[in-house]
Amino acid sequence: MSCCSAEIGLDISLSRTGCSADEVAIASSDLGNGLRQSVLSIPAMHCAACIGAVEAALVEVPGVERARANLSLRRVTIDWRRDRHTAPDLLGALAAIGYQADLPTAEIDGEDKVLVGLVRALAVAGFCSMNIMLLSVSVWSGADAATRQTFHAISALLALPAVFYAGAGFYRSAWQALSHRRTNMDVPISVGILLSFALSLYDTITGAPHAYFEAATSLIFVLLIGRGLDHAMRRKARSAVAALTRLIPRGASVLRADGRLDYVELAEIEAGMRLAIATGERVPTDGVVEEGRAELDAALITGESLWRSVRAGESVHAGELNLGNPFVLRATAAPADSTVAEMTRMIEAAENGRLRFRRLADRAASLYAPVVHSLAALAFVAWLLATGNLHTALTVSVAVLIITCPCALGLAVPMVQVVLARRLFERGVMATDGSAFERLREIDTVVFDKTGTLTTGTPRLANLAGIAPEALGLAAALARNSSHPVAGSIAAAAVSTDASPAFADIREEAGMGLEGRLGDDVYRLGRPEWALPAQDASATTVLAKNGEALAHFHFGEDIRRGARDLVRTLKDRGLDVVLLSGDGPEAVETVAGALGIADRRARLLPAEKVHAVKNLQASGRRVLMIGDGINDAPALRAADASMAPTSASDVGRSAADFVFLGNDLRVVTDLFDSVERAAGLIRQNFALAAFYNLASLPIALSGHVTPLIAALAMSSSSLIVVANALRLARTPGSSAATAPLAAEASA
Amino acid sequence: MTAMSVLVPLSIIMGVGGLLAFLWSLRTRQYEDLDGAAARILLDSDDDDAVDRDRRQHMSRDGG
After folding, report:
1. How are strands ordered across the β-sheet holding A548-553?
2. With a threshold of 0.90, does the pTM exceed it?
C-alpha cells in the first residue's frame, strides 16, 4: 500500500469523478442466480501488495463472493450478491484502504477478439511452416527420391491447416476487395499462396522434384506477424463518443412529490423531475437550480478555469461537477437532449479528420498489386508461347508471385511503428493509432487548447510574495483539512513554512470555506462574503480572524512545464502556433502573452473550435490539435493529428491519437524528432524490400528459381527489414524531456 | 529409413502437442494479466488456486 498512496493525487480528473454505490449497482452485469458482476478501475494499483490488499478488502465486504484483480489493466472484477436489497459498498471498502476506484469506460472491456484470432492463426502457421522447413532442408541437401516423395507428402499434409485455417483472413480480405472491384495487398498474396499450394500438391502427386509448400506456409507466417503488429498499432475499438457518456452518471437521485428519494436509471429521467445532486457528483442533465447553492466545475465541458457559483434559478449543464453543497435541480431536458448529448452528435459529425488520410502501406499496395499481377501474367504467357508447356509456364508465374510477395513490405511499416511506439512509451507518450505517426509528419500548424493543456488546470497561488508567512501558515493548517482544489493549492504553497498551529473544531462549510478555533479566536478561510460578513463578494479567498481579514489569496493558472520551450521550438521549426480557448479573454491573454503566441482566440464554443480547425485545413494547413477537454474533443477529431495529456477527460483521451504522461510538454518535441527518424527508417525499409524484389525478379522470370532460392530471398529480406527497424530502439534521443519524467515516475 | 519413419511422426506429434498446449493457454486467458502473474508469486495466499478454479468454471459457463 505504502508504495502507491503517493500517486493517488497524480491524476486530477480521476480523483474528481465520484460515483456512488447505486451507480455501481446499475452498471453491474447479471450472472444469473442473483449473482452480479462489477468491474472497477483502480488506477493506483500497481504492485503485489496492492493486489493482495484490494482483493482481501473486497472479499471482506458482506455479499462479495469473489474478487480478482488484473494488474495489467488496473481493474478488479467482483462477483457479489445483494445483501437484503442493498448493494455492497465496494467503493467504500476500497476508499477505506486508500484506493480510489471508479467505473471503467465500458467499451474497453472485453478482449480483443481479432488479436486473439491472429495469434491463434500465427501459432498454427508457425508450427506448420517450421516443420515443413525442417523437412525441406533435408530435401534440399539431397535426399533420395523415395525420401523426398515421403517428405513432400508429409509437407502437403502439414500445409493444410496453415493454408486453409491460418491464411483464411487473407482470402476473406482479398475477396472483399475484389467483390467491391478494388484490389489490395491481399489479392496477390492470396493468389500466390493458393496457386503455389495447388501447384505443389500437383507436383507431389506426380512425383516432381520441387515443391513450394515451405514458401507458401512461411509466407503466411511472416505476413501474419506483420498483420499482428499492425493490428496492435491500430486504434483500439473505443470511441470518444462512448467515453463521453461516462461523464454523465448512470443514474440520479430523484426527489418524489412525497419526499422520497429514489435512485433511478438515467433513461427514466424526464424534464420536470427534481433531482438531488450530492457533493462530488456530476450533473446528469441540463436543468435549473431549485434549492441550494452550488459551486460547479465546468473545466472539462467549456474550458473555463474558474469554478462558477450557481444560485437558485440559474441554469446548470449536464456533465458539470458539483464541488460545493448538495443542491436540488429541476431537469429542463431529458438526458438524451442535454448539452453532453449534443456534444456527442458533434463529435460524430466531426469524425473525419483522419479518414481522408491514406496509409503509406495502402498507397504502396495500390501500386504494387497491378505490377505484380501483370508481371506474373506476362511471364506465364511468354513461357507458354516459348515452350508450349503449361506446367513450366505455371511454375514460373507462381515463382514470380512468391518471390515478389510483399513479406518485407508487410513488415516494413508496422515493425518500425511498433518499435517507435515502444520507445515513445518509455518516454511517456502513448500512441493510440499507428497511422498517426505518418499523419504527424505532414503537420505545419499546431493548435493548443489552454486550460489543462498549456496550463496544468490546477489553481496556483498568484500573490505568494504578498502574504505574511504566519498568515500563510495558519491558512495552510486549515486548508490541509479540505480536498477542495483551492485549499490544495494553499496547502501546497505553504510547504516550506513550518509553522503549523493546531486548530481545534475544524469544520468545512461546503462551497464556503473552512472554520477552525485557535484558543478563543475563530479563524475562517474561504469566500469573503462568508468569512467577512461586512464585505460583499469578490473572486478571491480570504483568511479571517474573528471576522477580520488577515490575508487575501489570489489565484492564477500554472503554466505547464516545458510549455515555453515547446512553443519556441515549434516556431523555430517553422510551424505556426495557434491558441483556441473556451476560457475568458483575460485568462487567454495572460497565458498567450507569457508564451508568446500571437494567434489566439478566446471564448470559443466547441463548434467554433472545430470551425477554426476546419478553416485552417481549408487553407491547406495540416493541423495538430493538442487539447484535453470535452470541448476540445470534436476539434481533436477534426484535426489531422491530435494529442492530449493523461490528465485530460476520458473523452479527450479517446479522441486523441497520442496521450502523454506527466506534466512536461517538451515530450511533444521529442515526439516530432522520433517520428522524423522513424519515417527515415520506413523509407529505408521500403527501399530494401523493393531492392530484394527487383534483384530476384530476373531469376524468377528466367525460370531459375528453386524453392531454396525463394526461401532464402524471402526470409533474408524480412530479417533485414526487422533488423533495420530495431535500430530505432537503440539510438539515444534528446534526454531533456525524459529526465523530469523519470524523476516523476520514481517519486 | 525405419528410424526416420518413427522419428518424423514422433517429432510432428510432439510439435502438435506443443501447439495444442499454446492454444489451450490462450483459451484459458493465461496471457490476460502478465503483470499480475509476475506480482502474484509474491503473494502469500493459499486460495489462489481456488480463485483460478472457480474462474475457469465461470468461463466455461460463459462458453469460452
Report:
1. A504-509, A513-518, A521-526, A541-545, A548-553
2. no
